[in-house]
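Q: You know discrete backbone vocabularies at least as well as I do. I have my own habits and do not want them to colour yours. No explanation is needed for now; the record alone will do.
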Amino acid sequence: MPANAAVHAIPLPADALLQRYTVDPKNYTDCYVKDIAGHVSLSDFITAFYTTPLFRAERLILKYAVRRPSTDEDVHAVAHGDTQEFAAWTVEDRTEDQVLLCDMAGHTRSWFMVSPIDGGTRLHFGSAVTPGDGVVVRAITPLHKLYARSLLRGANPAQSAAIMQ
């Protein structure tokens, strides 16, 4: 299992915290996964995801566009459950292996989950867009899918753990 394993879409796991947003057919939900070698904790995955170069660019945009700055220390704090807020998101729900974040407007959710697989860890990343404005959702979905896959592809927990130490 290479660290830069392929990212692909799968059905949302039955126990996913994001499942609550599949009930309304107007909502958009997705789930992407990447399998990597070794054990990865949820906090390491979240840290890796939010410290990728691509997401650092989004953090910079959020700093100026909506005045929601964030630092790597803020990423570390939300990843480890030390705070409930990060940049433009708040923690909506959390378990040992999952976290569900809600954006400041309450229209999108970001979901992370880790699950053990033979010889490694499956990293799950999913989103929900609510309320379901069908026209807007259909318009942004292709770009969102590309962006979500790119973010997950760039998340390297081993590399980010070394950076945060």
User: Anything to note?
Assistant: The domain at 8-159 is CATH 3.30.530 (Alpha-D-Glucose-1,6-Bisphosphate; Chain A, domain 4).
